[in-house]
Amino acid sequence: MKNDIIIAGVGGQGIVSIATVIGMAALKEGLYVKQAEVHGMSQRGGAVQSHMRISDKPVVSELITKGEGDLIISVEPMESLRYMHYLSEKGVIITNINPYKNINDYPSEYDLTKTMEDLGICYYLDADKIAKEIKSPRSSNIVILGAASLFIDLEYESLQYAIKKLFERKGKKVVDVNLKALDIGYDISLLAKYKFNRQK
Amino acid sequence: MNKLLLLGDEAIAQGAIDGGMSGIYAYPGTPSTEITEYVQKNKIAKEKKIHNQWSANEKTAMESALGMSYAGKRAMVCMKHVGLNVAADPFMNSAITGSNGGLIIVVADDPSMHSSQNEQDSRVFSKFAMIPVLEPMDHKEAYEMAYNGFEFSEKHGIPVMIRLTTRLAHSRSSVETMPAKKENEISLPEDKTQFVLLPSIARRNYKVLLKNQINLEKESEKSPYNQYFEGKGSDKSFGIIACGITYNYLMENYPDNSFKYPLLKISQYPLPVKKIQKMVDTVGLLLILEDGYPMVEEAIKGIIKYKNANLKVIGRLSGHIPRDGELDPNIVRKAIPMTDLVRYSVPDIVKNRPPSMCKGCGHIDMYNSLNESMLEYGKGRVFSDIGCYTLGALPPFNAINSCVDMGASITMAKGAADAGLIPSVAVIGDSTFTHSGMTGLLDCIVENTPVVIIISDNSTTAMTGGQESHAFGRLENICKGLGVPEEHIRVFVPLKKNHKKMIEIMKEELAYNGVSVLIPRRDCVQILGKKKKK
């Protein structure tokens, strides 16, 4: 078992917590983990990514080989496409659809969704809306993680465990709302799985 | 034994704590910052009262670490590659004084310049100083090298460099810790003149350093970090030398132990000459993988082209690997060569997204006022420095014309003013000012140079994640003490509502024929957010 995952977003959107949850869950299952991150506040507002590698055998490289990636999880639609060349032929993209527009030449909504539809390997969702509905706008990244959960070879319980551990310091309320975000994401993950299977 | 999921930086910090370190010294700098931060947060390090406070700059950090080593205790100093330029004087001379207590200099290089001005390779610097280098391949080695590095330093009486790159510094993996060693007691050097580099003593010490190189070379030959693998295949015509982390990029391309060529892994310098000789004598084609400069490639190749040579060396110099930038598994594949795996190209609609200043940042208000104030003088007069405000070079501001090294804004503005470009303006941050701006300000004061120095004060070292700034609560007194006239130290709050007032102040000082210091002061919005949460 080996999962090479790119987690993408804009500096400040909190991609690190997605990586942390996957990492903690993988360690709980006794898997090997390597995770390359982008650090420094100077990255704020810029494109950032994390290479998350989990495997039942020791992971060698810190970086994923381009063309070998299994999954891109993105909290921003344009950023989800920036690392496409990392994906293998089986690779898929799970991304938030809400654009973060801080550049002048940001593509139009039409171009963005058309590109994603044409590629046929993208599943997008409005995680911000879902997070607002459960009154926890900051949990949108966990919704996305939930939506990607069926594409990661980890037990769902391990992800739940990691969320509990990561947020326990912030109190039961925060833990519960993030578990809920993960659950809603999981339902979407079923739809995504269905969509990709039907395409095959 | 304890298993921890650590950044490469943190693995070094944990190794140093367990290795009996008594003090860590550093100035924040990506990608080295997390080493010191880890020690600052670590419970055991706190209980042991291991020194962990930030230094004003890399030079003061290096010197303090050398002082702790003088006193017989184990010290670590950490910096980014360009920080070593600041610390170059004590670094070079610490090779001549030698160490007493174990002394480790950690330098985090940044190939591909993820957040730096250049991609200089600290291995070259260490060769210049004749200081041995440990270059970890992974987190386990990073931990071990720090854990055992103090003893290595003590054994040979010389500081040791640990060189890592951004990729290892900022990636996480699990590390098994080892039992904690005791700290050293204070014990002064036997020879009380060891650290007195008077020419007569320096000449003697230098001979010791030169002689010591033989021992260090022997250490490199037998080091477990420098391993020669014969190769499982019968074809010995092709071999590879892989330095540090590049070993992983190589092996990534050979899953399930399928690599079969002769291989020399190098993670300790000076270079293991005998092992390299063996490789050179065995293979006809030799690929060199190194993250940074083609240092090993150059050493093996020399500068002469040999006709009829039996050996062909390929790497960055031959063009088989790009001359600049960080390596990765795909670059290694291409050089071997192996088939390209990339299936998708990035769609054209994906546009560049450079970092930008945060919404509500005080630097933005400062730049808006400065740009308007400078209109009457024209473009090209604003020298800046290293920090978040360097982003003022990008649209929509296009406000600054230089960013060279820590503190250079003030001194470059001075030089330009000396040349007749009056007024010249410097934009520098509070922490950068106390790092290397104060001495430049003194130069301006001595000559009463007409410059306007804007110390854009967000009361923190923001770019590296909000470390304490030595300038906090001290700026006005420092400027006064250095001799800036009190009426030309102008403090104000950079806010949109103060825009007009700020322009008024700036224009007044731009018209003044002497040294002015403007201090727009407002907390970094990120740090303010964190404070409020607490």
Q: Helix and strand layout, with pairings?
A:
The complex is a heterodimer of chains A (200) and B (534).
Chain A: E1 2-10, H1 15-28, E2 32-36, E3 47-55, E4 69-74, H2 77-82, E5 87-96, H3 109-119, E6 122-125, H4 127-133, H5 140-148, H6 156-167, H7 172-199
Parallel strand pairs in A: 1-4, 4-5, 5-6
Antiparallel strand pairs in A: 1-3, 2-3
Helix pairs in contact in A: 1-6, 4-5, 5-7, 6-7
Chain B: E1 3-7, H1 8-18, E2 21-26, H2 33-41, H3 43-47, H4 58-70, E3 74-80, H5 81-86, H6 88-97, E4 103-109, H7 122-129, E5 133-134, H8 139-156, E6 160-165, H9 166-169, E7 171-176, H10 199-222, E8 227-229, E9 238-243, H11 246-251, E10 263-266, E11 268-269, H12 273-282, E12 285-289, H13 295-301, E13 312-314, H14 329-335, H15 362-374, E14 382-383, H16 408-418, E15 424-429, H17 430-447, E16 451-456, H18 475-482, E17 489-492, H19 499-510, E18 515-520, H20 525-533
Parallel strand pairs in B: 2-3, 3-4, 4-6, 5-6, 9-10, 9-12, 12-13, 14-15, 15-16, 16-18, 17-18
Antiparallel strand pairs in B: 1-7, 5-11, 8-10
